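@channel anyone free to eyeball this complex?
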Amino acid sequence: MEPEKKEFDWFDRPESRRLLWRLLIGACVVSVLAEVPFLFDHGRHGYFGIDGMFMFYAILGFIACTLMIYAAKWMGKVLKKPENYYGDPEEETLPEDIDESIR
Amino acid sequence: MNLSVDFPPALILFLGALLVPFLKGNVRSFYVIALPLFALIYILRLDLGNSWQFYIFSFTEDPVEFLRVDKLAKAFGIIFSLNAVVAFIFAFYVKKATQHVAALMYIGGAIGCVFAGDLLSLYVFWESMAVTSTFVILARKTEKAKGAAFRYVMIHLVGGLLLLAGIVLTIADQGGSIAFNGFDFATEQHAGTWLILIGILVNAAVPPISAWLPDSYPEASVTGGLILSAYTTKTAVYALLRGYPGWEPLIWIGCIMSVYGIIYALLENDMRRILAYSIINQVGFMVCAAGIGTPEAISGATAHAFCHIIYKSLLWMSAGAVLYRVGKSKCTELGGLYKTMPLTLIFGTIGALAISAVPGTSGFTSKTIILHAAETQHLFWPWLILEAASAGVFLHAGIKFPYFVFFNVDRGLRPREAPGPMLAAMAILSFLCIFFGVYPQPLYDILPYTVDYNAYTWSHIVTQMQLLLFSALVFFLFLPMLKRTPTISLDFDWFYRKGIPPFTRALDKSLNGVNAAASDFFLGKVTRGVCNFFESGASRIAAHLMTPIWALQGFDAKQIEEQQQSLFKRAKRGAFPIGVTAFLAVILLGLLSVIFLLER
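replying in thread with the prediction:
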């Protein structure tokens, strides 16, 4: 038996996923901390007032994405249908634009 | 008449495409790369202000102008031909000629549109795009592609008719002038300009006439989808920037598009359909910019279209490479591909970061010009919606696409890395994404208006990173809610795919029912009655008249019936005894005399 080549599976490991989580949260914190110096310099310049608020963009990103995910979830209840909903015929074979070796 | 030696660059692709079927193998593959490359070089050396025009229609005031070179047209021409070069590098493996011919003509049509100097030549190229792009979709030769192509061409023919109707009305309104410059929102609102606008918005995939895009592009082949993704919608963006700057409704239409694209992309399971909805989201930014209409907004939209074509093609390429190697495109069937397709992952991720406008990528230096234009015009709500949509882009295209395709769960797929030409094409576009991200000046130099904009201020970088990082945080916090399901999502195409068939059936039942009943009544009953009346009516009346007389003569029922039968027979043959005929003739004459006398 040929010895199997060790596969690169770093992203599948639980400890890697934990590390990535920490990195993400750390990056979020750093992005907020990076705004702190502006507080000592009469705040960040905003065009509408509210957008000059500390952490405005962080809050906007968080709220907007949460709302959109909930909107999609809620709309999905009505809009999601099984794949053959329109009764399209399923292909017997893979179309010819797919790699020959797997067709 | 100004006739220069320059000819429309579209001709290079139109005429060049005709040669494709005569070439074979690698020669053909190199030829289809060289052709748009030649067009690109030709467009780069076109001088501003050049034109190619002549009088063909006697009813128009102006000459038809098939070539108008200005900065706006040139910027779109450059990116259209540049993208075509890279797309054909990616398509090196394609062995059939049909798709190449259709694709080259389609790209030629798009380049023709942006260099068209008037409404009529715009219309000619516009329609050529609709027809040739349909063949690009059909080239996959699957049943689904056939259905999608049919729906696609129907929508685009309707859009083309609206455009044509608008053009005719506008020419009449302009007193015979076919000029296509900016229509003024304050003074030039009439049925003609609105119809042209609607015709353009069909191609821009504005809801509710947007479903043709996610319906058809993902049914095209690996390279077909890639090529389609760049041209139809961006030609429409060009037409809006040219003809409708400052038309305020476009601001809100753009905002709706940007959010609509995100919500549907979040619902989608098919990776290419996610990218298709993402086009609508991105075009929303550009449509909004056209509505804002300031020089900065127009330049911003042009820059965004330029960079968008690059990173969106890159994303379609990485999705295409996966589809090519795996034969699957649904998130529920994909995952864990980072193990064997790391380069495709890296290039795809660069495209995903660019579309999300991460600092250091071309999205950051282009899309944010539009946001800045909204800020300086103090358009609070449009600005807020576009900022929220920017966060949403990272959610659906920036993270969702790479995560579900390359990571998520390992489904045991171990495809080989994408072929060399595909990787080369992706590498070129990845380079451009980063190049224009760190050094946008060459891009800013070709924009229609001078841009005095620097994306790289410390506060801009910080706020953009906050927006994106907290969006990423939301993605991973809500990951269980985003779990893919093997479903499709109903879009506006439901109305013509499901809504109309029962509607037509109802029409069939009701109208054809009326038709059948009318046919029964008039042909079956009335006509037969009339025929019967003229065939045997007279003898029946005679028999009715005679029956009491025969009864008085003392005939019994059986004899009366015999008399009637003989009367019918004689009436049919016209054989009455002469005496009876003469008697009846005398009665008739008598009646006529009475009528004659009364009339006097």
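from a first look: The two ends of chain A are 28 Å apart (CA to CA).
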